[in-house]
């Protein structure tokens, strides 16, 4: 199993906009009782190491596929493969794995939170604002501060308030306040 530091490094690489430490308060995935789970976790870790460097994403995807074959109940393996596919510029293939990760996780835990967030980003690429908002809401309810930030950015009133606040703060910093 990966250390907390290893997991944080991977999250930072695969989700560069996500605040560091963001997943600390999110519920762990439910334990999986399957004879292939140990092999699955081993293959996932190998894939994660390759995906971290972004130098051999095809091999990382291959390892995640083998992990899924070893334990088809592991939502994290589907989520990890989806992340590698997105990094490879294959969002439509990633979309299938994100759906499967959410289904297997029952919409709970770290894998679901990450899958909802990534699927929301694909919806945004498709200009499907309503679906993106629903998935960001799901991820936010699971504890994702990144998803909460995205929801705020999608709210036009919040965007106006943030712009006004930024202007005031800039004027205060510049000494232009009355």
Automatic annotation (TrEMBL):
<dbReference type="InterPro" id="IPR011990">
    <property type="entry name" value="TPR-like_helical_dom_sf"/>
</dbReference>
<keyword id="KW-0677">Repeat</keyword>
<keyword id="KW-0802">TPR repeat</keyword>
<comment type="similarity">
    <text>Belongs to the TTC36 family.</text>
</comment>
<dbReference type="InterPro" id="IPR038906">
    <property type="entry name" value="TTC36"/>
</dbReference>
<dbReference type="GO" id="GO:0006570">
    <property type="term" value="P:tyrosine metabolic process"/>
</dbReference>
<protein>
    <recommendedName>
        <fullName>Tetratricopeptide repeat-containing protein</fullName>
    </recommendedName>
</protein>
